[in-house]
């Protein structure tokens, strides 16, 4: 007997991004359009597709969710709190697109609970998605340091 994959994904999202993230990422109206792909070797969840496009990836190394740009947009739109988000100055967005990194000096606001190595969503001052990536520094370090790379972007959204 296999458990409901969306129940598992919602619990992981709540743990990873904060309470309510599971419902924000996997709303009941979108679940009917989603398809879950499992690993052939382990039988564990590997991908969730929405309209034949990758929506989230379930990372095997640590069991966390890696959101796509669309999933990140749903998180930002439906979450009330500023969780796992890094807000950057609009002036630096074109440079961020070129270097695919967020430098500490580009940051306007950051969630202090971000841990180094966690998945983060980078937004501009208008709450538009700039990209998603992995935090190199913790949220506190991002606030305290004057220079350095804060986030390496995995996917960028040039269509802001």
Walk me through what this model shows.
The protein has 160 residues and is of the alpha+beta class. The chain is built from six helices and ten strands. The chain has helices spanning 5-17, 21-25, 28-31, 69-78, 93-99, 139-144, and strands spanning 34-38, 45-50, 53-58, 65-67, 85-88, 101-103, 107-110, 119-123, 129-135, 149-156. Strands 6-10-9-8-5-7 form a six-stranded mixed beta sheet. The chain is globular, with a radius of gyration of 16 Å. The N and C termini lie far apart (43 Å). The mean pLDDT is 91.
In brief:
This protein is 28% helix and 32% strand. It has helices at residues 5-17, 21-25, 28-31, 69-78, 93-99, 139-144, and strands at residues 34-38, 45-50, 53-58, 65-67, 85-88, 101-103, 107-110, 119-123, 129-135, 149-156.
List keywords for this structure.
alpha+beta; six-stranded mixed β-sheet; single chain; 6 helices; Archaeosine Trna-guanine Transglycosylase, Chain: A, domain 4; Nuclear Transport Factor 2, Chain: A; 160 residues
Strand percentage lies at 25-35%
What's the helical proportion of residues?
25-40%
| Regions with little confidence, pLDDT below 50 for 5+ residues | none
Query: How large is the count of helical segments?
Result: 6
CATH architecture of the largest domain: Roll
What is the CATH homology-level superfamily of the largest domain? ArcTGT, C2 domain
Spell out the helices and strands N to C.
HHHEEEEHEHEEEEHE
Mean pLDDT: 91
Structural class: alpha+beta
Which shape, going by the Cα principal axes? globular
Name the strands of the widest sheet in spatial order: 6-10-9-8-5-7
End-to-end distance, in Å?
43 Å
Largest sheet: 6 strands, mixed
Number of domains: 2
Radius of gyration from the alpha-carbon trace, in angstroms:
16 Å
CATH domain topology of the largest domain: Nuclear Transport Factor 2, Chain: A
CATH class of the largest domain: Alpha Beta
The total strand number stands at 10
């Amino acid at each position: 007997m296999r458990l409901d994959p969306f129940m598992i994904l919602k619990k992981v999202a709540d743990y990873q991004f904060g309470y309510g993230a599971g419902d924000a990422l996997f709303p009941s109206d979108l679940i009917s359009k989603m398809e879950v792909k499992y690993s052939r070797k382990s039988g564990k969840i590997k991908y969730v597709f929405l309209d034949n496009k990758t929506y989230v990836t379930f990372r095997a190394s640590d069991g966390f969710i890696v959101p796509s740009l669309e999933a990140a947009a749903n998180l930002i739109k439906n979450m009330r709190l500023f969780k796992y988000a890094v807000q950057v100055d609009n002036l630096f967005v074109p440079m961020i697109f070129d270097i695919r990194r967020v430098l500490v000096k580009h940051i306007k606001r950051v969630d202090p609970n971000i841990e180094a190595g966690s998945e983060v969503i980078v937004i501009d001052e208008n709450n538009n998605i700039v990209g998603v990536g992995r935090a190199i520094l913790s949220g506190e370090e991002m606030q305290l340091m004057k220079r350095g790379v804060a986030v390496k972007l995995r996917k960028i959204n040039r269509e802001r």
